[in-house]
Structure formats: structure tokens, C-alpha cells
Amino acid sequence: MLGGMTGQIPRDVSPQEGQKMVQEGALLVDVREPHEYAEVHAEGAQLIPLSEFETRFAELPKDRPLVMICRSGARSARAGGHLLAQGYSDVVNLQGGTLGWIDAGLPTGEGNA
Length: 113
What we know:
36% of the residues lie in helices and 19% in strands. By secondary structure, the protein is α/β, with parallel strands linked by helices. It has a single domain (11-109), classed as Rhodanese-like domain (Oxidized Rhodanese, domain 1). It is globular, with a radius of gyration of 12 Å.
């Protein structure tokens, strides 16, 4: 899954910068699996699990910034690289992932998408 990395890697942003982008209209995209998302997620995150990402990424808008998030930042970087390879231009990766978001004291939610 997402094996065809082209070497494109999205820029990392801090949790605070990611939250500011979301407040300004960016879409926060969580690529963890549903059970992880249900435990805790960054407030407002849209779930598209990495296991479904190659078939569902086209659901994401190309006309607004995308902030990718996972647990710690590795899976979301892969997903963001895939989006860049598919012609998305405004994609960043949330450094530290959901763990960093929580550590920064930013708002979270629980439950299913």
C-alpha cells in the first residue's frame, strides 16, 4: 500500500501551526485506522485510513490546504507524499502526529467518524 513513493515528502508543521491552518480553512486528514481514531483524534479531523487511502484520496479537495496527521507522523508523511505525487500541491504533515497534538494541549475528540 502506497508503495510507489516518488521521493516527494510534505513539509512538516508543528501541531500549533497545523491547528492554525485548520482554523484558517485547511482540512485535517487522519490516516490512522478506525479503532485508533475512535480512541482519540484531533478535533475536526476527517478519517481516511491509510489502508483505504489509495482508493479514497480523490475524496480530498485540491482547492484547499491539507494537513495530514497519524499517530506520530510517519504514515501521514507517506500519505502526503502520495497526494503530492497525484498533483495535490498544498499538503503538509503534522509533526509528531496525534501524540504531538495531544502533548501540545490542543482539542481532541473521541468516537467514530
